[in-house]
Amino acid sequence: MRLPFFRPTQRQQVEQLYRELAPSLIAYARSFGIEHAAAEDAVQRTFLALLEIKQEPQEPRPYLFRAVRNALLNQIRDSSREAELTNDEPWFQTASHDRAAELDLRCAMGALPDEQREVVMMHIWGGLTFEEVAAALEISANTAASRYRYALAALKKTLSPAALRNSL
Amino acid sequence: MTMDDDKFEQHLRSFQPRDAAPLKFSGSRRKTVIAAGLAFACMLIAAAVILFPRAKPAVDRPTAESLKPMRRPVTLMDFNEAERENRLDEALALSAAQSLPRTDRPNSALNALSKE
Predict the structure, then answer these.
(1) Cβ-defined contact of B23 to A47 (cutoff 8 Å)
(2) Do A48 and B28 touch (CB under 8 A)?
(3) Which of these ranges, A1-15, A86-100, B2-16, B26-40, has the smallest mean pLDDT?
(4) Which residues of B touch A105 (CB under 8 A)?
(5) CB pair distance less than 8 Å for A5 and B32
(6) Looking at CB atoms within 10 Å, which of A3, A62, A138, A147 has the fewest?
(7) Confidence (pTM)
(8) What is the rounded average pLDDT of the residues B11-33?
């Protein structure tokens, strides 16, 4: 049995990373169609696992997105259920936006192909560069950028024109 | 990326992901405490086994020699029986050895003998 004795500095670094990235990672996990609580659990487990690995990853941000992605794919496969993107809980805070705008965005994201949606989630809300997205998804940076452009074009078409007029 | 694309990205970024609950270490901490407790208990048991040899029993195990039948103590009935059967020497010897009364019957032969 391995004893998880944490180094204080490592723990502080992980807490700092969690504060920075957890909201984006949870939103990313939600885009796989799981509920908010389950997404939060998956992200928490990923960070706790990060405390126990011997060698810290050199690029923690793409590493964490990749770890959450793997955990979610396993979870979805194990539970043998189709991911539903239509559950009612919001992915995003609605303080500055009305619920309808958030729902529009969620539906538009849900309509994207999986590989495009995760690139958008990582780049826009995770703050990852295309190189980092490519590292997380094990694809080339060009492929990541290409998927992103297609996704952006699709989102523009899908999102409510009124909402866009208000924001642009 | 066109100017429109930049503005559209800004619009998307204006949606903020929901806040996350604080990171909970409770599960790992509990595991650590349980593991430390188990390790400590094992160390205590090992130390006790090493430091304290088995105590010698207070009473030796019985042997064939130690199982001799106990002699029955001499009683007044033995004395009376010896006297009744006219084994007077034996009766007197028993009486002297065990501080028994000479006789519990005043008209007995032994009583008459001792008066003589």
Answers:
(1) yes
(2) yes
(3) A1-15
(4) 12, 15
(5) yes
(6) A138
(7) 0.58
(8) 77
